[in-house]
Predict the structure of ParB/Sulfiredoxin domain-containing protein.
Amino acid sequence: MISTQGAPKGFAKEKERLEREAAKGSPKDQPTTLRLGEIKTCPAVFQPRQGSQRDGAHYRDHVEALVHQLDTMPAHVRVLEPIVVYAVGWSFYVLDGHHRRAAYEAAGITEGIPVGHFTGTIDEAIREAYRLNSRVHLNLEKSERNEAAWRLVCIGETSKPRMTVDAIVEASRLGRRSVEKMRMLWRRLQTRYGEIDEFTNDHVPAVFESYREALEADRGEKREFTDEMREAMIDGMVDKLGKAFGKHAHRHTDEMGEALQRYLGEHSFKQMAEHLGYAKVDMDELEDFLVAKARGAKDPHSLHPA
């Protein structure tokens, strides 16, 4: 199974969403045409090209060329090569054909769009999307091949079973030697930047959003703690808290707050509260509050907003 640990933030978040959708079931039929609204995109997972737009159509000039092609066709046959889709839950997602879908939308064509279907697991669909996007019409540039291969290395090294070099080469169309170097780079960086989970003692992979960032880190250049990295860290903490406590924490907020105070320690708890702007905490006042709470006081003095 392709893991989301160590994967770029966008990929991890979207793959987990797709897995939740898939658990709800899937369409039984495989129609040869779909309405435009039935064809969804998830470029973070199924589009290897760098800087893909929200709809996955990276090259707008190519979209315009396809629109022109459609406009010159007879009204009853305004169709392009079938879009390859994959059923996730009750929706169909584009594996290959993001630019064709964008062209149909720009041309105002919303019915009778030819599609072909890929069947298999989500992990197999990811590899197939990379393979299809690397082979024809709009060949990936070298930098895009590098980024596609790097993303597969990141997710493949923590997958069970581990994704093979041959599988990454086939999906990205990058040379075997280059992929092997990337795998050695990933393992080298994990030794340097990876962490150990204090609770489970499991290895927590360091995340490198791009191949370029990984190379910079390997050269010993300062790895800037970006807003994206900060958000990824927060999302990871939220995910772990959710898995550990579920709705329990929401039903017992007072107890959860005191548990955090005990876990973090008074100094860190004070810093957290002041950073969030909820309170300017006086430590003597905090101690009095906890003592009063422990004694069962009906109305212990509270921490006032800053």
Observations:
- Residues 9-218 form one domain.
- Confidence is low (pLDDT under 50) at residues 301-306.
- The CA atoms of residues 117 and 241 lie 38 Å apart.
- DSSP finds 14 helices and seven strands in the chain.
